[in-house]
Amino acid sequence: MDKSTLQQLNALIQLDIDAVAAYDKAVQHIEDSQIAGRMRMFRGDHERHIDDLSRLVSNHGGEPPKRSADLKGLLIEGFTALRSVSGTDGALKAMETNEKTTTGKYREAQKWPVPPDIKAMLEDSLNDEVQHLEYIQSLLHVTA
């Protein structure tokens, strides 16, 4: 795998690392236990993406990023914390913004010229992201 593809995969890993931190902040402010449980499941999906992609990068001679927020991640985390202070609705709106970004990046990844096994992994992750976004948006439309 070429260096450019490893860098692109690492960018996705970092995005998922940032998503995990955002979910941590959002869940703290969600009053409904069912919604909070679903958000924890989504956080778990992001953890799985990190694990799968990190293993892939390592297996191809690259070094995945450390599990800590970068500058963009710190901004996302701060944005999520700020929006979440208003409760469930604010937390969901923050996570909608975050999931739109993540879904968009995984959609872009579908265009990468990668082997079929990697393409399948990226497609599975995109499907997770689409489900996250659809669920959050369905709640926002109900509460709007």
Structural features, described:
With 144 residues, the chain is mainly alpha-helical. Helix content is 81%, strand content 0%. The protein contains five helices and no strands. α1 (3-27) runs parallel beside α3, α1 (3-27) runs antiparallel to α4 (88-109) and α2 packs antiparallel against α5. The longest helix is centred in the last third of the chain and has 28 residues, at 116-143. It is elongated and about 45 Å long. The model has no long low-confidence stretch (mean pLDDT 88).
Topology, element by element:
Blueprint: H1 3-27, H2 33-59, H3 71-84, H4 88-109, H5 116-143
Structural class determined from secondary elements: mainly alpha
Per DSSP, what share of the residues sits in E-state strands of 2 or more residues? under 5%
Per DSSP E runs of 2 or more residues, the count of β-strands stands at 0
Q: What is the helical fraction, as a range of percent? A: over 70%
Poorly predicted runs: none
Task: Give the overall form.
Answer: elongated
Oligomerization state? single chain
Number of helices: 5
Mean pLDDT: 88
What characterizes the major β-sheet? none
Compute the CA-based radius of gyration.
15 Å
Distance between the termini: 46 Å
What is the string of SSEs from the N terminus onward? HHHHH
